[in-house]
Write a structure and sequence with these properties.
Elements: H1 2-14, E1 19-35, E2 38-56, E3 59-65, H2 70-79, H3 82-87
Antiparallel strand pairs: 1-2, 2-3
């Protein structure tokens, strides 16, 4: 996971971010439905995702995704808005 977050940060910095951070979240959940003292259903789930936050010339940007791949780390870091901020748009 460290390689993944480092890649997102490296992409953000290479596009001009003066500051960048990334966070990865993985959530596990379980639920049990009970009606009148009887179990009606049991469910479990897992979700994961990451976000990249940057500061460029006093402007904050943020982007996120639920896909944890190297290509997605690059894409999300680029989506933060660095191209527009750096270009002055």
């Amino acid at each position: 996971m460290r390689d993944f977050t480092d890649r997102a940060l490296d992409t953000a910095v290479s596009l001009g971010a003066g500051y960048a951070d990334t966070r990865v979240v993985r959530r596990l959940s379980e639920s049990i439905s009970i009606k009148s003292g009887r179990v009606e259903g049991v469910a479990s789930g897992e979700t994961e995702g990451f976000g990249v936050r940057v500061l460029v010339d006093g402007a904050w940007g943020f982007s996120s995704s639920h896909v944890l791949t190297a290509a997605e780390a690059d894409r999300v870091a680029a989506l933060v808005g660095l191209d527009e901020v750096v270009a002055g748009a």
